[in-house]
Design goal:
Helices cover 0% and strands 66% of the residues. With 90 residues, it is mainly beta. Strand 1 and strand 2 form a beta hairpin. The relative contact order is 0.31. The protein has one domain: Sandwich (Immunoglobulin-like), CATH 2.60.40.1930. It is built from no helices and 5 strands.
Length: 90
Amino acid sequence: FNLSNYPNPFNPTTTISFEVRQTSLFVTLKIYNLKGQEVKQLISTEVQAGKHSVIWNGTDSNDQPVSSGIYFYKLISGEHKQTNKMLLLK
C-alpha cells in the first residue's frame, strides 16, 4: 500500500497517503487510539489504481477534537492490512 502520513507529528491536520496497484480495490481506512479503540473511519469505498490521500483533522466520529497523543491508522483491503503510527501534538 505504501501507507504514510505527513506531517508527523501534526497539528491540526495530517494527510494520509496510500497507493493501490490493482485495477480497483475496496479499502477501509480507520483511526485508532493507543487502547485499540476505533476513533474514526475515514473511508470505506472502492478506489481505482493509483495514489490516494485522505486528510484527518484530528476529530473523532462525532467530529469532536481528540486529545494529544499517539494514534494508529490502519488501511484494510480484504485480507491485506497495514498499520502506521502518528502523533498529534496540541
